[in-house]
């Protein structure tokens, strides 16, 4: 009797494994779609249609549109995720740190270095398509640099309130600091060689940019 019971349990388990796969959550579907979109943008930007992205993500086009209801929404999702890989959100416990430490942590380079292949491929696609679809360029500016600058501006605004720095226009200052920290993409666009920036190189530029910036906005005695 015991052997029969064991056999029955094993067969039931195998039936479950052969059954319909467990449905993915919305977050899992979104991550899978964004992975596929980034891969296609880096490998074949012109071929990164909604059909191709759905196929690469292993799901139907209908399912893709349930997560991202338009190509613009998908672009925005890719841009937001790329922005978050360049700009880290501070933890609650880090908001009391001196402004230099906050800025260093926000712009902190990734451990494995900075891979520019996907951002540059996306940028090329948007540059090509923006004359016909200006909403793509607007999405890049809104979800990319503008959102990042706004977050940094809030940090600077709080540092002004605490008396750490003297910045009459935190929004403009954040925009300037962002340009100092991030290298101009033109060189890499024109000569797409060695698109991975090592962490050591990124950190060196970050430290120089933050220190030069803070020396210019320090509170005068």
TrEMBL record:
Keywords from the UniProt entry: DNA-binding, Transcription, Transcription regulation
Compositionally biased tracts (Basic and acidic residues): 13-29
DNA-binding as UniProt keyword: yes
Keyword DNA-binding attached: yes
Entry superkingdom: Bacteria
Stored Pfam families: TetR_C_7, TetR_N
Cross-referenced InterPro entries: Homeodomain-like_sf, HTH-type_TetR-like_transc_reg, HTH_TetR, Tet_transcr_reg_TetR-rel_C_sf, TetR_C_Proteobacteria
Gene Ontology MF terms: DNA-binding transcription factor activity; transcription cis-regulatory region binding
Domain HTH tetR-type: 27-86
Residue ranges flagged as DNA-binding region: 49-68
Signal peptide: none
Region (Disordered), start-end ranges: 10-29
Name of the protein this chain belongs to: TetR/AcrR family transcriptional regulator
Organism of this sequence: Pacificispira spongiicola
């Amino acid at each position: 009797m015991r052997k029969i019971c064991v056999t029955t349990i094993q067969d039931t388990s195998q039936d479950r494994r052969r059954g319909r796969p467990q449905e993915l959550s919305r977050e899992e579907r979104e991550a899978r779609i964004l992975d596929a979109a980034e891969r296609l943008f880096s490998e074949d930007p012109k071929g990164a249609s909604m059909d191709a992205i759905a196929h690469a993500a292993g799901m139907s086009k209908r399912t893709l549109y349930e997560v991202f209801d338009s190509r613009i929404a998908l672009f925005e999702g890719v841009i937001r995720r790329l922005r978050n890989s360049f700009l880290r959100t501070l933890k609650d416990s880090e908001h009391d740190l001196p402004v230099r430490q906050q800025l260093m942590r926000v712009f902190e380079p990734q451990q494995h270095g900075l891979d520019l292949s996907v951002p540059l491929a996306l940028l090329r696609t948007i540059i090509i398509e923006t004359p016909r679809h200006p909403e793509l360029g607007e999405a890049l500016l809104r979800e990319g640099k503008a959102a990042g600058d706004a977050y940094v501006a809030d940090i600077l605004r709080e540092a002004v309130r605490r008396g750490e720095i003297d910045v009459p226009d935190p929004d403009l200052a954040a925009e300037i600091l962002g340009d100092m920290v991030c290298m101009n993409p033109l060189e890499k666009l024109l000569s797409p060689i060695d698109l991975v920036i090592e962490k050591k190189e990124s950190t060196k530029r970050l430290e120089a940019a933050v220190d030069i910036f803070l020396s210019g906005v320090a509170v005068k005695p």
